[in-house]
Amino acid sequence: MKSFRRHPATVNAGSMADIAFLLLIFFLVTTTISADKGILRQLPSDCPDITKCIIDLHERNLLSVSLNQNQEILIEDKIVQIEEVKDIVKAFVDNNGSLQCNYCHGNKLVESSDHPKKAVISLSHDALTKYSLFISVQDEITKAFYDLRSEYIRTYFNKTPEQITDEELKVVRKAYPFIVSEVPVKRD
Fold it and tell me: What angle do CA 103, 108, 111 make, to 5 degrees?
């Protein structure tokens, strides 16, 4: 009698590796990787000798912007709207060579700083301040500096901000340095 041996069935897997690599490449090419959003800020450099980094600041050169737990914006302890922040910051920073009031809001006069290079914006916030309000105020402060720098570029270089060179950009940044101090308010 003849015995029948059964051979196990085999699958030709020679092209499986090719298919796997093609699928891997397909998914790598078609997948979008979302970019994280963040705040574009350059941190100050480390100061090894703290006594050399501390400067005397005249109170006139400091504009206090505070955000409280009620989601209100206070500039020099006066409540303002988000739409007013840019104009107030511009008036404070850009003194046009004078020492007079450039902007009035409410019953309080906001005096300009002694010089744009000496102007410091102090941004403080409460722990319960909404993140969106904090970012909105930061954006308004940044817009004020951008407007001042754009006007400087038009006046002194007769160009648009997109047309200036790196060397001219350095001059503009020295004329209107972006000096913002961000400090959270500590609760008791």
Answer: 45
